[in-house]
Amino acid sequence: xxxxxxxxxxxxxxxxxxxxxxxxxxxxxxxxxxxxxxxxxxxxxxxxxxxxxxxxxxxxxxxxxxxxxxxxxxxxxxxxxxxxxxxxxxxxxxxxxxxxxxxxxxxxxxxxxxxxxxxxxxxxxxxxxxxxxxxxxxxxxxxxxxxxxxxxxxxxxxxxxxxxxxxxxxxxxxxxxxxxx
Length: 181
Known about the structure:
By secondary structure, the protein is mainly α. It contains seven helices and no strands.
C-alpha cells in the first residue's frame, strides 16, 4: 500500500501496523538500552507509536520510516532520562540489557565490556549502540538525532577510540591486578 493509493486513514493504519511488526523489537532494545528498565522501555515503546500516529503527517513517505521512528524514540528517551535525572532516582540495573544475551562472549569479557561502557559518556554509549549493535549508518543516526552526518561520523569514530582506549587500559590493569582497586 503506497501513499495516495487509498484513503489516508487506511494508509496510516497499514503503515504503522507494518512499522510496529518490523521495528518494535529493535526499538524496544534501543529504548531499554537507555532507560535501563524493561517496564519503562515498554511504556516508551508504546509512546513512540502513539506519537508516530499523532504526527504521522510529518513523516515523508518517500523516506524510510525506521529513522523517523528512531528519532521519535530518541526524543522520548532523552526526555525520560532528563526527568529521571531531575528526580535523582538513578537506577543501578546491570548492563546485561545492553549486551546481546545470545552472544557467545565469555563472562569475563562481558563484564569487561560492561565496565568499559559504564565509563563512557551516555552520548558515546548511544552512538556505539546505534552504529555497532543496531547497524545504523551515520546518515540514519544523523536523521534520528537531527544532527549533521559529519558530526555523527566524527562522534562515532571518537566513541570507538574511547572504547578501545578504556578497554586496553582495563585489560592492562587486569593483568597487573589493579582493575578493581
